[in-house]
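Supplementary Methods, section 5.1.

A reviewer requested that the exact input to the structure prediction be made available. We therefore reproduce it here, unchanged from the version used in the analyses.
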Amino acid sequence: MKALFFNEFGSSDVLEYGELPDPIICENELLVEMNYIGLNYADIYRRKGTYHIEERTPYINGYEGVGTVVGLGCSVSNYKLGDKVLFVDVPFSNANLVAVPEENAIRVPDDINTKLVASIGLQGLTADFLAHDLGDGQQNSNVFVHGISGGIGQILSQMLTADGLNVYGITSSQEKQRLALNQGAKKVFLRNSNWEEEYVSFFDTVYDGVGITLLDSINLLKNKGKVVFFGMAGGNPPSIDFVKLLSQSKSIVTGDLWDYLTSSQERINRSNRLFEYFREGEIHISEPTIFPLSRGKEAHKFLESGKSVGKILLQP
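The structure derived from this sequence is encoded token-by-token as follows.
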């Protein structure tokens, strides 16, 4: 098989593309020929050695993608050759062939475009659990989304709007600002524009996947409000004065998607709910940026540049 791999941790320069042995599937696994592979910030951290990556020589990054079933283990019962499947938590996906446990596979609906499914898989399921498990979801409440025009931000903000909440956010350029406003946000602020003073103690919920902005997020909360903290794309969060939080009845909630995708049925239920937003036309996303898998080094550099809007996909 062809794969994007590396032998040591470091910058994108450690990445190589070439031929490696095909995966050997177990009795409960599908052999999937990849159509699209998702690239995420976690892959950057894994490449640098600062985030868990499955042991392998050489290392193969990636945990997410969409492909076609081309092989079946002897105990697989719910899939057949030719089925399209999505997965968001299977290692070694930066290759044209991936061994996928049957329980981790999510069937791709016939009425939703394969490229769209690849663009919304991990970010969409993350947005779903942030909105419906960690967020309060009360209609007409005011919520704020950091990175509103990013992969998760685009889906999360529209999901919250469809659920009847008033969505505000922040982004880095006028182009991204217009995108978020066109997707239904009530107001979108530009970074470094001194907008915060008017919105101190204003929001019921703040969604923060940036990390270093955690103190700002707390300041934006009303008393009894909560920060939904779900990532550190901008760096590690600062120290928090929990006594001050206590005195204002503010809270920080956090969670990991993998503690919610605990079974095949959970994956089916959550993906069906996600897909329904798109069927109903309640969520639209920008076109993904697609790189050939052979140019994975360029894709990593582009993601790290901060210039990307929406999802980056790799295509074998």
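Helices lie at 41-48, 114-134, 151-162, 174-182, 214-220, 242-248, 264-279, 296-305. These observations are discussed further in the main text.
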